[in-house]
Amino acid sequence: MGRGKTQVKLIEDRTSRRVAFSKRRSGLHRKAFQLSVLCDAEVALIVFSPGGRLYEFANAGMQNTIGRYNETNTKDSTSNQVHQDIEKIKADAEALSKKLDALEACKRKILGSNLEECSIEELQSIEDRTEKSLLSIRTMKARRLEEQLAKLRQNVVKLSHHKQELYFQYQKEHHLAMAAAASAMATFPDDDDHHDVMDVETELFLGLPGSSRS
Fold this sequence. Notes:
This protein has 4 helices and 2 strands, in the order αββααα. By secondary structure, the protein is mainly alpha-helical. Among the domains are: 14-60, 3-Layer(aba) Sandwich (SRF-like); 118-182. The chain has a two-stranded antiparallel ribbon. It starts with 13 loop residues before the first helix and ends in a 10-residue tail after the last helix. One of its GO terms (biological process) is positive regulation of transcription by RNA polymerase II.
């Protein structure tokens, strides 16, 4: 008869546990070596004893195998993350597509299309939303008109001030021109005075020297 199946559990006896560790560690080391030779596999084995002693086997060098493991693990993690991101993007796109379809259907109903399939409650809801939308639109329209009216009033005030400034400038220039004209008139005599002077000068030089007028 063969041996019975060994129950896998902690060996309570410390001596027996050490013996079992030594035998199974040697068997595990042998199996790892056989796997690497028979299958041309890169195998690395690390074992710590209960006392903390290190046992290892690596047919391609422990550091090389660990480096290869880290690189492969990083690639796998990156690939998994990319796959998860793609799946999330697809799910988000599908959800957005459904929302857009629902919004388009609601838009058509608000515009008065495809109302045959609507219930009384849905029609009432559409009517309420339409009235609210109209109220918002009218409120915004009134606000825009008030803003435009205020701007027009400001422009009127600016134009009135500019008109007054132009008028004052015109009055100032007109007064200056009148003053300059008056000054010119005071400096040069008129034609009648000029003829009188010429007449006096003519009378003074009439006749020969020493003779008297008849």
